[in-house]
Design brief:
By secondary structure, this protein is of the alpha+beta class. Helices cover 14% and strands 33% of the residues. It has 4 helices and 15 strands. It has an 8-stranded antiparallel sheet with strand order 1-4-13-6-7-8-9-15. A 7-stranded antiparallel sheet has the order 2-3-14-5-10-11-12. Strand 7 and strand 8 form a beta hairpin.
């Protein structure tokens, strides 16, 4: 009997230790950083966006300031900004679906594939569902001039449960760099280098918020598809910020150059052209503790690493 109790105790301890290891990334306390999301006004969903697809799965709430997007067996759903932007600060507070979410993709991203189908640009924040309950992966990616064959993915665990409440996911995009932030903490900086400028997004883009079925690749390379037994999967978008140069295709100069008025290009100030020392240290924290994949370290995938990796 004592032997059986000892085995049961060891089994319980093993399960506990495995649970702690799996969820240890959510126990980190993040560094303190400036809240860039406090610099810009919120845009209501109904004012800033149109329905992109899956209209019946889109629900506007709180007088149009928030939106619930659903994925079910019939369709995913998505919103697209009414304006196109050339550089800017883009952010959304997102609360992810709880429960088992394998194969589900929630995305907040910029793209111009509708205007430039053969040489489009894209800046992606993708949140990938997981085979473990309430565990999600953050994937960032950058495409430029149709370079879809050279994905520039980096993947991170999150230091919180993204299904409990809204968290802010943000993008800085200007002539100097592209920065991805989570709750104002930079997790990745993609610097604009004139030596290989063709890999940097440089054309006006729309802002998208979507949820869809990524069964073929999202969770462990497609090992775990969406299980619609747990549908609908509902994501909440709130506190949206879209501050940048609104592209006007009929204007003679819609490039938001520094010669334009400061109000038309709000991400050219010192807080946005270069990371502060505090932000650099916070990004180093995130990358050391939470990043588990970078294309720049994937030598089996790339015989010759992309130029910005060197």
């Amino acid at each position: 009997m004592a032997f059986l109790q000892e085995k049961i105790l060891l089994s319980v301890l093993l399960i506990f230790c495995m649970t702690v290891l799996v969820s240890s990334h959510s126990r980190y306390t993040p560094p303190t950083v400036a809240h860039l999301t406090d610099y810009f006004p919120h845009v209501t969903i109904d004012q800033g966006f149109s329905k992109f697809f899956g209209g019946s799965n889109i629900q506007l709430i709180s007088n149009g300031s928030m939106a619930n997007l659903a994925l079910d067996k019939t369709s995913g759903s998505g919103l697209v900004s009414k304006n196109k932007y050339y550089y800017g600060f883009f952010s959304a507070a997102i609360k992810l679906p709880s429960g088992l979410s394998s194969g589900v993709v929630v995305a907040f991203y910029l793209s111009n594939a509708d205007t430039f189908p053969h040489n489009h640009d894209e800046i992606d924040i993708e949140l990938l569902g997981h085979d473990k309950r309430n565990d999600w992966v953050l994937q960032t990616n950058v495409y430029a001039n149709g370079s879809v064959s050279t994905g520039r993915e980096e993947k991170f665990y999150l230091w919180f449960d993204p299904t409990e409440q809204h968290h802010q996911y943000s993008i800085i995009w200007n002539n100097h760099h592209t920065v991805f932030l989570v709750d104002n903490i930079p997790v990745r900086e993609f610097i604009h280098n004139s030596a290989f400028s063709s890999v940097f997004p440089s054309k006006p883009m729309s802002v998208y918020a979507t949820i869809w079925d990524g069964s073929e690749w999202a969770t462990h390379g497609g090992k775990y598809p969406v299980n619609y037994k747990y549908a609908p999967f509902v994501v909440s978008f709130a506190d949206v910020e879209m501050s940048g140069c609104i592209w006007n295709p009929t204007a003679l100069d819609s490039s938001c150059s520094k010669a334009s008025s400061p109000s038309s290009d709000p991400v050219e100030g010192p807080e946005f052209v270069k990371l502060s020392q505090q932000q650099i240290e916070a990004m180093d924290w995130a990358r050391r503790k939470l990043m588990f994949y970078s294309y720049c370290k994937d030598t089996p995938r790339f015989k010759v690493l992309p130029p910005e990796c060197k």
